[in-house]
Design a protein that fits this description.
single chain; seven-stranded antiparallel sheet; 15 strands; elongated
Length: 312
């Protein structure tokens, strides 16, 4: 039986309350978590929401097994199921499903994929997946922002600075994309490897000439070509990927509802994986963020639809 711990990776006991400022358990509860009857663990889980309120904690680990996470992902991939966001602060892709929009959904033990004409998303859940939430709802699957993450030690190493060719994208979600060439912008974060995929010979020639250059130089030189060609944008993470097929809006344009990308230089300069309001302990790599249907996928300190942004 999979035994889930409330530990968030932030382990510090508050001297006034005797509770951990990461998980809200006592030192004795932490040391004895893997021992004793299951009833004791259920009692502690039931008490944690009230303890977190007393401590003023927003971030918490959900008591979800990997099976629970699998079930949540599959159930959220529907109209009204909210918005998924993958990438890093300043370079993200979003995926959601429109009302009555046709969707190709494939759910198996090892992979979950959902694809529409505007975008696609793939998850490869593993026992190493961790589910964090921001909020205090009795039903976090309905009203809390949820971050799916993996321990940084298991996340792998992202490409360093500079545009690099990843070759034919054999892991593309739709078969027609698997013969196209994927270029990665080399943003240097395992949380979100942002790239573009295309079969257009003219764009591929331009990309080859700029291999090894950092993204500001690439966009300054051929950003207009990329916008006009509107290639598929691909964000890869340790648990899967998110692809956006919808056209890139022109400069000054408004991001469409549904799948789209944001590439915001000012935010990239901060060097964060997530907005500060959603930061999780550094021992974890955030892979995908789920915003419930009534929550904005962009916190107030981020550029929202209609604001000036660099379109990629």
């Amino acid at each position: 039986m999979e035994r889930v711990s409330p530990c968030t990776g932030l382990c510090r006991i508050d001297s006034d309350t005797g509770l951990c400022l990461g998980c809200a358990r006592t030192a004795d509860e932490i040391s004895m978590w893997g021992q004793g009857p299951e009833e004791n663990r259920r009692r502690v889980w039931a008490e944690l929401p009230d303890r977190r309120r007393r401590l003023g904690l927003g971030l918490h680990r959900l008591g979800w097994t990997s099976r629970d996470v699998h079930t949540f992902i599959a159930s959220a991939l529907r109209y009204g199921g909210g918005t998924w966001v993958s990438g890093i602060y300043g370079a993200v892709a979003e995926f959601s499903i429109g009302n009555d929009e046709p969707i190709d959904l494939d759910v198996s033990e090892s992979v979950i994929t959902a694809a529409t004409s505007r975008g696609a998303i793939a998850f490869r859940p593993t026992p190493r997946i961790r589910a964090f939430a921001f909020g205090s709802s009795p039903d976090p699957a309905r009203s809390d922002v949820i971050v799916l993450a993996i321990a940084r030690a298991h996340a792998g190493i992202a490409p360093g600075d500079g545009l690099n060719c990843a070759g034919q994208d054999g892991e593309a979600i739709k078969p027609e994309g698997r013969s196209e060439t994927l270029y990665d912008f080399g943003l240097g974060s395992a949380a979100g490897r942002f790239g573009i995929r295309t079969a257009r010979s003219d764009l591929l020639a331009s990309l080859r000439r700029h291999e090894g250059l950092r993204w500001p130089m690439v966009l300054a030189s051929i950003g207009g070509d990329i916008q006009r060609a509107s290639p598929t944008r691909v964000v890869r993470n340790p648990l899967g990927r998110l692809e956006v097929f919808a056209p890139i809006p022109p400069p000054g344009g408004v991001s469409p509802e549904g799948p789209h990308t944001h590439f915001l230089p000012e935010q990239l300069a901060a060097g964060l994986d997530l907005p500060r309001a959603l930061e999780i302990p550094d021992v974890y790599v955030p892979c995908a963020v789920h915003y419930p249907a009534k929550a904005s996928p962009l916190p107030p300190d981020e550029a929202g639809p209609g604001q000036d942004e660099r379109k990629v």
